[in-house]
Amino acid sequence: MAPAHKAVPTPEPEALIGADAPEPSQPEGVAPAAVFALESAQDIENAPVAVASLPTSANASATEAAAEAAALSPSEDEEEYVSETPAPDFAQLDLPSQASHLLTLLRRADARQNRKQIFDLHRQYETAIGTDRTAARQRFTEQGGEGDDFAYAGPAGHPELTKALHEFRESRVRDAKAEDEQRAKNLTHKQYLLSQLRQLIESAETRDSSVRIKALQTDWKATGAVPQKDAQELWNSYHALLDMYYNNRGLFFEMKELDRRRNLEAKEVLVQRAEALNQQPSINKALQELRQLHEDWKHIGPVPNEQRDPIWNRFLAASEKIHDRKKEFLTARTVLETANMTRKTAILDQIKPYAEFQTERVNEWRAKTDELQKLKEEWDAAGLVPRDKAEQLNKQFWGAYKGFFQRKNQFFKSLDEEKNANLKRKLDLCEQADAALVNPNWDEGREIVIRLQKEWKLIGRVPEKQSDKVWNRFRTACDAFFERKNEEAKQRVHQAQQVSQEQATHLDGVAETVAALSTDAPGTLAGFQQHVAEWRAFDSAAGGPRGGSERGEEKFQALMGKYLDMVPGLAYAERTDLLFQLQVERLKSGADSQQALYKKEQTLRREINELENDIATLQTNLEFFARSKNANQLREEYQGRIDEAKTRIEGLKRQLKIVRS
Asked: Per the record, which residues fall in region Disordered (predicted)?
């Protein structure tokens, strides 16, 4: 942390004396009093020189003091400025609010003096924009978008801010160019004044010599700054010529004393104004006026020797009171920044492991991203740290932060590559299925389509926006292939509807047996298995399911359902599984069994997925009711529905296992 600058005594220029002593203008290249934005202590510390600093040499000549003052005075581009407008916590604003705040600062009348704060905030804004753009791109790609299609519009007010900042920078360039041109003109004019001053010194003294020298001094003072490289030489020449002029005048000593008394009166006024600054509530105005007072002090000649130290000490004491306000600010800032550094060091210890995080699960990446973003919010809210520690802390933080997102981006990039590879494989299966459609050998084509369906299941996910499209193409090709046997299927349906007399007689016998069951003469599992075996034997003798009818099968299964109802101790789930196994056995022994089993499996999967979605919805509602004091009945109802759905899913999974066996 840079130490606060303390003003120390500076000599009064002894060379500028006499009744017609020159009133030197501000040295070339030395800008008027500067104002810096002091919304925080960091702004004061970042100032290129101390606020309202004073010359320090105790023995310098007038020329040396002027040179020293020029060296200590900041250029106009480095003016100190204290922003007195209450500033929001910029890091806590959302992006539209940040853009609005920057736009307001750019449109203020003091925007040029406040440009350091504007550019500092704009750098934070650009960092936030970059993070938001990266997150938006990530969300876009996760939702199935192509990277080349991504377009980032920015937050509300972003285009207006970009335009305003561009115009602000252009105006600065124009102003700098105009200032350079004006300084060149000022240099030419002051060189002309020097030539006039030389002629006045070399010529004989006349009655109007005093008037002419005063006019030259007034013109010199009114002329603005010159290029920095010429300022000191020009200033030295000017004062050397003035010294020559006054040394050549016979009234030198008399004018000296008169001029010193006038200078003392002028400096008394400056001291009173400096002492009054302690009551100025605005530090910005106090610093600005103090700097101007010091500039005015430099241009006033010497005072009587016995008054030189007392008047200067009064002026210095008044100046130091203003500097004390800066010291208090820096002291408070140091305590705060030290506490902030402790907080940020603790946060950094939590963030460092994220730089090496690695996983193959999408949900874990997303969870870790949320955790890291929360830590970043804490980091941003922790505030400023000591300047000599800030760079190293920020370097470590951003190293870990960016390292995490680099690994995350690599993971999702490889995941996208895998999805694209899966898409190519599925498109190849679609082409093979299209080729099977025109294969004249139906049995060979059927084997190909069944193989393609199995391979399809083994291929992973594809890009979301292509998923439905490629699946519909494959399913359409498969369905179209099996439509070729539509006529044969219709014939099987027709045959199945014609139940033979033998089947009808057998079913009537089974119906009588079932009707005779009672509590005293219940059914048994052995009896159930015997009926099934007899039906299958009869079915086989009749030419299998192709020779029977679907209606007969439905009637048999209905009778078996009633039979199982009369088996004591049989659980409902067992009953359901036994009846479902009957259906599966029928499908396996029927024509196009693979296609039928595939459709049955897909139906079961859809039912499971629907029930799982229903459970998720019910659990969300249940969590909502859990926060309500008077919703016990609703919670019990929703919990019952969840338990019922879970039981149903267990049953469907058992059926799915039967289909796969």
From this structure: 1-29
